[in-house]
Every structure is written in structure tokens, then in C-alpha cells.
Amino acid sequence: MPAIEVSGLRKAYGNLEAVRGVDFSIEEGEVFGLLGPNGAGKTTTVEILEGYRRRDAGEVRVLGHDPERPGPDFRERIGVVLQQSEMWPNLTVRETHAIFAGYYRAPRDVDEVIALVGLQAKADARVKSLSGGQKRRLDLGIALVGDPDLVFLDEPTTGFDPQARRAAWEMIRSLRSLGKTVLLTTHYLDEAEQLADRVAVMREGQIVRVGTPAELTTTDLQTEIRYRRDGEDVVVRTDEPTRVLAELTSAAVARGEELEGLQVRRPSLEEVYLTLTAEEDEAEVEA
Amino acid sequence: MSAEAVRIAIRRPVRRLFVHQLRAEQLVFWRSREAAFFIFLFPLLLLVLLGSLYGGHGRFQHVPVRWAVLAGLVGYGCANTSFAGLAIQLVLRRESGVLKRLRSTPLPPATYIVALLVSTLIVFGLQAIGLFLLGRVLFGTPFPPDVGSLVATLLIGSAAFAALGTATAMAIRSAEGSSAVVNFVLLPMAFLSGGFGPTKGYPAVLRAIGDVLPLTYFVRLVNAVYLHGQGFWTQPEALAVLAGWGLAGLVLSVRTFGWEPRGR
Questions:
Q1: Which member of A55, A191, B58, B106 has the lowest number of beta carbons within 10 Å of its beta carbon?
Q2: What's the CATH number where A117 sits?
Q3: Residues 6+ apart with CB under 8 A from A18
Q4: Do A165 and A112 reside in the same domain of the chain?
Q5: Are A33 and A72 within one domain?
Q6: Do A90 and B31 touch (CB under 8 A)?
Q7: What's the whole-model pTM score?
Q8: Cβ–Cβ of B101/A99 closer than 8 Å?
Q9: Domain of A275?
Q10: How many domains are contained in chain A?
């Protein structure tokens, strides 16, 4: 049974249609990335799955529950990292974890979780003394302390410096090895590529593409072949790179020429992403 | 499982969660120096100041005026803790995302709210004990003649002010300046209601304003119970006005309560 099943999901705020017919499913143990620019509907989608918002239409099952009418064990089995939240500033990291541990029937050991998120050295420090990255790790720690099966991470590394992002990625990878199902939203492409087994690209409330990072890069844009001829760059874009390349090279060999600066390049996920979300970006520039 | 067994199975974790959350709330409250000072200590400080200010020989309703100052400050303390303190804390927690975050845990919303209210009540209870002890030591004021009636009075007042505090918290949109807004309501109310000493000498206009404020009636109730040893039920008018304000606050709170940040 999939951990999450969504079909025909819709949600509007007044006239603004934030989510306009979204379908996807996430298998148990999978790390699934919801990728898209700000305002694409990622957070609305996730908050419907977490039970914060009611949907206007569509079917949603999360761990077998309807999040609008969850059974008693629904909240025992999910862990949530919100986009923005600050816990009690005057409590210590350990106290905060202990309070959250107390909400669950079978919590994990508090010190073990603190070590897992790399806050051992800060266990007795007040929350207000933590850096931004450390506060985010605290958020992750209190989301894991109940030993959830499913973890929601809403933009877990926004605002991090590169080093803190690497550290956060390591932690998220460790969730996979714990067998957790993870739903991650991000507007960073490299993050989705690094962490997610599958990625859904969202734009204007709809999913425009779903697949593994590799599938997204192979199925969409054409392969690019570049070389120089008479001092000028030649670029060929094709769906059949093998045939085109064979023709080019055999012709060049027949002429006894070398194809200068020959390159064969698959489009990067970034290019795919930019193509998929291009209209959105233009709309944003206008706004 | 029998129906009884099901009931026990459901109730036990709720009781455990309530005790757990109550301890958490107490830890959060006392760990914050601002809260501990402005909410808990401030009325005690005012007792030292105002008790010294009002002379030892003045009289109010046939008892030494310092007794009335103490009664007024018990009223102010109740509003300060249950109304202002609760409102400010609720706004801060809502805006920081704590309330929203707690909603995704197995802690039932009602358990959270009851624990927060009981925690507030514990703070005020300790404060009231502190006020009576301090008054006794510094100014020779007597202990309450009828403790049961006083406790009932304080519970009624706390309930009414907590309802108003919750409604006020939901009317405030952002954490910035929330304590200024709340104190802008609280301090004039305390002054006009006799929270800072008897209003006998005030101009008629100010006394007329005071006559619609809930704290006026709560101070009146405390006066009757503490100064004159009467039962709280001997003041039906004060009880009715307090109940009216409390119910209005409750209805507003239930209608407007929200767990998610509103500012930004």
C-alpha cells in the first residue's frame, strides 16, 4: 500500500486556485520531492496532507487515513517540519525534545535523536542561542522524536549556507536508511536531485512532470551535440543522438577532418526544470 | 473490549498528556524572565509601593485602607495573569508557530488549552498567596476570613479574564507590540476599577467608565469576601456582570480561535 495517495486534489483561497488537480502517490520508504518555484502550491498540498487544511476536491489517503478525519494513530505516525516555526526560546534543546517525546506513545530516546540531528554539543543550550541551521535541526529532531513512519519536510534548507545544507542533506539521507517515507518540498533543484527518489515538478498548482531525476533529464529535452566548423560553433539538438552523431562523425572521417570541440550533452535537470517552470518565472517578473 | 475498558484506554493517555503539558507550561513560564517578572512579580512590587503610599491610618469601608489596597491588587493580579499574561503568551506562541506545530502532534487541542489555563491559574494562585503573605508581613493585613469563598471568587475571576484574554489574543494580529496593546487595555482598567487603590476620590466621569469594566466588579467581589468576610454569592450583581463579560469573551474566543500565525 502506498504511504500517500492523492488524486484530483484541488484547493482555492478565494479567487486564487492554489492547487488545481494534483495526482501522485508515494510508496513506503520512498523519498519524494515536490519541486517548484514559490507560489506553485507545494506548501498548500503538503499542509492538506498533514491535516492543516481542508481540500475543496479530490481524494487523499495518508497512511490509510483521510487527513481531514484522521484516526487516533494518524498523528502518532507522522512527523512534521513546518516552513517556519520557532519553539520556546528559553528551553534547552533537550527539554524541547523531551516535551515533544511526551506526546507520543512510543517515542525514541531523546539523546539518541539529538545525536542523530547533530546537536549533542548543544543539548543543554537554550533554543534562542541556536543558529538558524541549528534551529532547523531542532525542528527535524522534534519531528523524529515520535518515531514517525512518514516525515514531511517543507523547505528544510531554505536560507542555509552551503555547509549547513550539506549537513541537512546527510540527515535527510539518514532518514531513508531508517526506512522512513519522506515528502520533501523545495525550490532548490540540486536538493531534489540529491535527495529524492522521485521528483514531481509543480507549476501554478499543477504537477507538470513526475519521475526519477534521471527520467526527467532523459525524457524531456533533446540531447545537444556541439562542435566547431570553420571557426563557428554548431549546435544540433536531437531526439536521436546516436544516429545524428554517427552521421556527423562518419562524414567528418570521410572528409578526413576532425570535429573540433565535439561535445555530446544531455540536458541537466536544471535546464529541464527551467523549461518546465519558465512561464511561471515570466509571470513573476511581470508581477 | 467493553465500553468501560475503551473509556479507560482513552482517558488514561489524556490524563498523562495533561500532566505532561501542564509541567511543560510551568517550565516555559518560569524559564522566561520577562513573564516571571511582569506577570508574577509585578503585582507584588506594586503592593510594596502602594501599601507604603496609602497611609496606615486611612480607612475604606470601615477597614484600614491598606486592606483595600491589597484586595485591589489581588484583582489587578488576576487580570494581569489571566487576561494580559495569557493573551501575550498566546499571541507569541501562535505567531512563532508553536501552536501550529503542536496541532500535528497527538496532543489533543482541548488538552493543550486546559493545561495552559490551569498553568495560568497556578501562577495566579501562587501570586495571590504571595500577596497575602507579603501584606501580612509588611502591613499587618489579615489573612482571608473565608478561604473557601475567596478561592471560589478567584476561580470565577480567572475564568472570566482568561476568556477575555483569549479573545483579545485572537484580535491581535502580530507578536510585535502585543504586550503594549494588552497593557494599554489593562493598566487604565486597573486604575479605573480600583485595582491600584480605592477610586472614591476619582472624578465622576472616570468612575462612570469604571462602572462598565469587569475588573470593577471583580474588585467589588474580592472586597466583599476579603474585607467583610461575606460569601461570594452575596454579590449577585458583580457575579452577573463578570459572567456576562466572561461569556462574551468565551463566545468570541471560540469563534475566532486560530492555531496558525496571522502576521507577516
A1: B58
A2: 3.40.50.300
A3: A11, A12, A41, A44, A205
A4: yes
A5: yes
A6: yes
A7: 0.86
A8: no
A9: 221-286
A10: 2
